[in-house]
């Protein structure tokens, strides 16, 4: 009976995956896995309706009896009010003034647990309320658990990345449905020296029941499943994911495959999980999958912030899922597929791959937390908008006093153009590149690398200058300095991207490719006209396909 129940749940989960698999990707990096001893988490907020901007709440004191409005992050729908606390911390993006950072991916899970009447706190509000109320990752877990217990959980199953300068945790949570308020959850600390990841598939399986230093969980996480008839084994064999969000073809191919792709960039021996990433699942007698990837892996070498940025840029290149290799890439090797995620020919359903880098990203970041510095200086949000593959991660320190204008809330939205909006400037370049991708992406990556390398190389000098002010007791001046520095780098990047847009239009207009020499476009002998451009046409396989499909229609007579 249990095995049959899990099978039916898996089928529901596959149907759900088609809807939620266009969501997000996170990686979690511990201190012992990095060159400089920093912790990091990444987040790509992937949604076709999400505008790329950096949220900001200044620290504030609140009066007794003050309430805070809670609105659903995905829709803007008002959910209710909850009591405010006496003091809230500054939040810059997804990092607060104590370098606590939180990211997420939605895994959905059991459909019967999605709706909770009267619930006030959704997963997005849970993140930003917690960032305003907690100082450490461990404290954040307790704050999140208390909030959903008191006010209900108004979302589907969710995985959260939670990190401070010393610890990195993954928390997985799902509501209790219509019968009961609150949620069941498990949180595990990533062992130092290891990395983890999640991408819209619950990742925590079995967990230690008596190790509070490294594992926390709700008291009823197992008993609730027993009451529902979803688990009847021994407590030590209970799998959170296997019970509340079983992995199946969609969970592996659309979701965990992204974690696998990121892992294989920095850890060897990941190719042994390629069949799993392709969606080939084996199950044990209890219905749980038996060939899943581990929750965490050890990277081959210590990672830099640029290595972690690189983990967020992937289209399955060099694997059996390589999105540049099948005919869907077109003649210019475009590694994107317009939605929907699945499609049919006759009665057969086919899939598009869902890679880490995807066209519908609103914003992404690499949050870097460094314990060797005071919090306002130690925390850096490497922030980007639009597709992770073609974005540029810009340094924004958590101690800034205001957000740079190009990424500030209110500077445009998904239906309102702004010439000084980083989101619209980056989207203009990426959507232009989609027309002749294999050529244009090289030009984009050149500028991307130049800027990101400069930002990373300048960071020690910026830290030193800020520390000099801080050590003199000029804390406000240090924050002002970091505010001005962050502002300049964001504006510099947006202006450089505008120049890149103009360059790409000139170089690739009308299917031509203008000639260049020594960094300048070439002119003819008179100097009044451009040199005759290259016209590379299409690859041979494309011409052969066209000839085959058109028969005699296009033959020269």
From TrEMBL:
Signal sequence annotation: 1-23
One Pfam family matching this protein: Peptidase_C69
Sorted UniProt keywords: Dipeptidase, Hydrolase, Protease, Signal
UniProt cross-references to InterPro entries, sorted A to Z: Peptidase_C69
Biological process terms in GO annotation: proteolysis
Record GO terms (molecular function): cysteine-type exopeptidase activity; dipeptidase activity
Catalysed transformations (reactions): an L-aminoacyl-L-amino acid + H2O = 2 an L-alpha-amino acid
Broadest EC class assigned to this enzyme: hydrolase
EC number in record: 3.4.-.-
Superkingdom in the source lineage: Bacteria
Family assignment from sequence similarity: Belongs to the peptidase C69 family.
Name of this chain's protein: Dipeptidase
Species of provenance: Prolixibacter bellariivorans
């Amino acid at each position: 009976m249990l095995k049959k129940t899990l099978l039916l749940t898996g089928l529901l989960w596959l149907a759900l995956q088609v809807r939620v698999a266009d969501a997000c990707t996170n990686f979690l990096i511990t201190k012992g896995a990095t060159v400089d001893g920093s912790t990091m988490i990444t987040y790509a907020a992937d949604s076709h309706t999400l505008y790329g901007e950096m949220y900001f709440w200044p620290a504030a004191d609140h009066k007794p009896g003050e309430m805070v409005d809670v609105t659903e992050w995905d829709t803007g729908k008002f959910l209710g009010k909850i009591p405010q606390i006496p003091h809230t911390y500054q939040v810059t993006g997804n990092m607060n003034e104590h370098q606590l950072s939180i990211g997420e991916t939605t895994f959905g899970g059991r459909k019967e647990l999605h709706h909770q009447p009267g619930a006030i706190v959704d997963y997005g509000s849970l993140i930003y309320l917690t960032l305003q109320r907690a100082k450490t990752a461990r404290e954040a877990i307790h704050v999140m658990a208390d909030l959903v217990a008191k006010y209900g959980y108004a979302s589907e199953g969710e995985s959260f990345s939670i990190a401070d300068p010393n610890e990195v945790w993954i928390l997985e949570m799902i509501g209790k449905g219509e019968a009961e308020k609150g949620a069941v959850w498990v949180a595990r600390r990533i062992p130092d020296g290891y990395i983890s990841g999640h991408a819209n598939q619950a990742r925590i399986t079995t967990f230690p029941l008596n190790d509070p230093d490294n594992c926390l969980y709700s008291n009823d996480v197992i008993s609730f499943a027993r009451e529902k008839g979803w688990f009847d084994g021994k407590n030590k064999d209970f799998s959170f994911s296997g019970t509340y969000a079983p992995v199946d073809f969609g969970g592996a191919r659309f979701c965990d495959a992204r974690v696998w792709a990121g892992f294989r960039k920095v850890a060897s021996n990941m190719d042994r999980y390629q069949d799993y990433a392709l969606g080939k699942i084996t199950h044990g007698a209890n219905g749980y999958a038996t060939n899943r990837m581990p929750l965490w892996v050890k990277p081959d070498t210590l990672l830099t912030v640029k290595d972690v940025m690189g983990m967020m840029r992937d289209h399955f290149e060099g694997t059996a899922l390589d999105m540049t290799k099948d005919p869907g890439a077109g003649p210019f090797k475009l590694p994107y597929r317009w939605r929907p995620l699945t499609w049919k020919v006759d009665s057969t359903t086919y899939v598009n791959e869902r890679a880490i880098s995807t066209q519908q990203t609103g914003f992404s970041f690499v949050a870097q937390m460094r314990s060797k510095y005071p919090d306002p200086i130690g925390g850096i949000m490497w922030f980007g908008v639009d597709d992770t593959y073609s974005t540029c991660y810009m340094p924004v320190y958590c101690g800034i006093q205001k957000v740079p204008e190009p990424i500030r809330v209110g500077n445009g939205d998904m239906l309102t153009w702004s010439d000084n909006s980083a989101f619209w400037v980056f989207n203009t370049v990426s959507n232009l590149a989609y027309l002749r991708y294999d050529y244009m992406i090289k030009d984009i990556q050149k500028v991307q690398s130049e800027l990101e390398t400069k930002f990373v190389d300048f960071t020690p000098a910026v830290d030193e200058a800020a520390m000099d002010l801080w050590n003199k007791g000029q804390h406000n001046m240090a924050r002002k300095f970091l505010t001005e520095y962050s502002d300049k780098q964001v504006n510099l990047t947006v202006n450089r991207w505008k120049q890149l847009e103009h360059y790409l239009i000139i170089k690739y207009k009308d299917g031509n490719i203008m000639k260049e020499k020594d960094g300048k476009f070439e002119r003819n002998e008179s100097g009044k006209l451009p040199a005759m451009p290259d016209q590379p046409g299409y690859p041979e396989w494309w011409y052969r396909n066209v000839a085959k499909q058109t028969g005699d229609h296009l033959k020269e007579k």
